[in-house]
Amino acid sequence: MVSAPHEAMHRIFQEYPGLFSRVSEVLGVAFSPPTSVTVLPTDLTEARPVERRVDTLLRLETEHDEPLLLAVEAQGKKDIDKPASWTYYLSYLYAKYKTPPLLLVVCQDRATAEWASRPVHIGPSQWASLTLRPLVAGPHNMPLITNTAEARKDLALATLSAITHADDPDIGAILKSLSAALREAPESLTGPLVELTAQGLGRRPAAEQWRNLVAVDLSFYTSPLSEEIRDEARTETRAEDILLILERREVHLSDDARERITTCADAGLLREWFLRSITASSAEEVFGTE
């Protein structure tokens, strides 16, 4: 049951809104007296379900520090709505778990990282009620790990280095050191890191470098990604063999026929064309009825 003192301590501001400016002056923070006041509903319950999801949420406990909740957000670009969402996440987590929450934002470009790093003060300029201060990891502060020995010390950090520096001119050296370090790692560790690196590079030019390294440096490693890469390599080699044989035998190929061979991803069909190219006297005989 709500006590009488509880009611009095807040209702007095309902009855005398101008009291706030005088109280704030006493407290050393100046607010001008209000010229108008609107009474708003006090029920802050969500009127309808709103789905809110943080990218990753972990509870971390150590021997020396207090437990904390780590919320990890991957941020690809600036988003003016994100600070409000992040503040909600942290407030909700603290209210639900009664454990200090920490927000870590991971970025792949410096401009987004610098934007995410700026403290966001929530409240009037005279006295911010909340200040959002996420930790931010990105190309501006993650190490450039281009040495195999360094990568070997912490494979997960080396992987994050590759992901956050995906557009860096030295990304080739980073990926090379990572692939060399992974050669000596247990497959249970190698598998997830290979796949995470591929995902993190996305469609950037560096992704092709990583695919080639997986196919060569990590030839022992088997996974959907590695098998896909090796299948592509086999089809590319087969297509090159067909073109080489036809060139040596002076069989003319139109641009369309050449493109048809080089873009074919069907290993079985390429094998048929390869066998026909040995004796074919024209592109039509190579392709047959397909």
Care to describe what's here?
With 290 residues, the protein is α/β, with parallel strands linked by helices. The protein is built from 13 helices and six strands. Strand 2 (68-75), helix 3 (82-97) and strand 3 (101-107) form a beta-alpha-beta unit. Helix 6 packs parallel to helix 8 (187-201) and helix 8 (187-201) packs antiparallel against helix 9 (205-216). The model has no long low-confidence stretch (mean pLDDT 83).
What radius of gyration results from the CA coordinates? 30 Å
The amount of beta strand, in percent, is 5-15%
Classify the secondary structure makeup into a structural class.
alpha/beta
- What is the strand tally? 6
Specify the helix fraction band.
40-55%
Task: Write down the secondary-structure element order.
Answer: HHEEHEHEEEHHHHHHHHH
Q: Give, in spatial order, the strands making up the sheet with the most strands.
A: 1-2-3-6
| Biggest β-sheet strands, sense, barrel | 4 strands, mixed
Distance between the termini: 83 Å
Number of helices: 13
Shape: elongated
Question: Which consecutive residue ranges, at least 5 long each, have pLDDT under 50?
Answer: none
- Domain module tally: 4
Overall mean pLDDT stands at: 83
Short description, anyone?
This protein has 290 residues and is an alpha/beta fold.
Topology:
Elements: H1 4-15, H2 19-26, E1 56-60, E2 68-75, H3 82-97, E3 101-107, H4 110-117, E4 120-122, E5 130-132, E6 135-137, H5 148-153, H6 155-164, H7 171-182, H8 187-201, H9 205-216, H10 224-248, H11 255-262, H12 267-277, H13 283-287
Parallel strand pairs: 2-3, 3-6
Antiparallel strand pairs: 1-2, 4-5
